[in-house]
Amino acid sequence: MSKIKAFIKRFITRRKLKQFLVSPLIIAYERFFFSQKREIGSSLPKKVLICNAAHLGDVVIATSILEPIKRYYPNVSIGFLTSSWSKPIIMGNPFVDHIHIIDHRNHSRRKCSYWQKFLIQYQTIRVALKEIKNINYDAVIDLYAYSPSFMSYFWYAEIPRRVGYYRSSVKNFFTDPKEWVQQDKHEARYHLDLIRSVFPIIPADIGLKPFIVKHEVDFSNFLPEKIINEGYILFHPGSGYLLKDWSTQKWIQLKEHLLALGYNIIITGSGVVEAKIAAQICADSTNCVNLCNKLKWDEFIAVIAQAKLLVGVDSLAGHVAAGLNTPSVIIFWGVVDYRNWQPLTHLTQIIFNHLPCVPCFKISGCKNMSCIRDVTVEQVLSSINNSIKLIGSDA
Q: Does the pTM exceed 0.85?
């Protein structure tokens, strides 16, 4: 019986079947609610809501478009809708006037049941929509081009102008639907295209950089004085998604090489899985400090800002390093085009195996994942050496 249930579950969760079942409902919904032509506002908004409630790295990238809006349109009031786990990224940002929270179940990594996540989503939606209606935004720009889209919420909130990429939602919820087309440009440039459709005098070639709010912290609370004085290389080996991760054994070998060269190593991360990896990397080593699950957000930011170099995978840490001008070496996976998702800085070096299948755009990857797993310790050491030379230190 269990095998039959498993087969049925796999069958009904197949994307093609879901599309087959859901598409007629979407078409009927569109025809019922959107029989009239969409009206697109042309006047500049006085109050605009920016939306990106996805994972931490996505929200860090999204901060890069806030300063250009305020620079060219200083009188515009900006609200930002994000998730509770990403709220620390936006808190204290001088360009944001209001923060709203929606915790969508599909993005939540909470250790709770699906129905608990659904309840939290419902509760946060109710609160956010009440806040949004009270502020009475003139326009909303949903930066997240993937599923889930929040545009139906903004339609319900009666925001007059609704801008975003429509590939993951019912097109008619938008007043300004933009087709998402895969190109060899950074995700932040996709964001900028949406922003410029509402704020046209922002230059298309303007420089973009994540905006990270920094605070003073006391390093002596979590680091030995020796490492504070001598400096360190920061390892951030986790990503929250195992397919993006490099071999733990190779991290250990890399650590041993760098310690032999006289460098201090700090390891950061969060969660049970990353804590286990960090403990294995740092085991039986002097001048290697494991800070996984030991840092508050402000301390995490400060540790990255103070590092000589960050070595990591495609994760939040690389994007934060870009905003803080910390050089980085990123071991990348081949599922996505690195040009879309690399840290938004010239101070990064990207490493992956250039296989014919890269990028494959298969979110579940493949059995071998040779694009990242076959990256050698020697390749990473070479990139670290090049990065250290670029910042004026001896390798």
A: yes
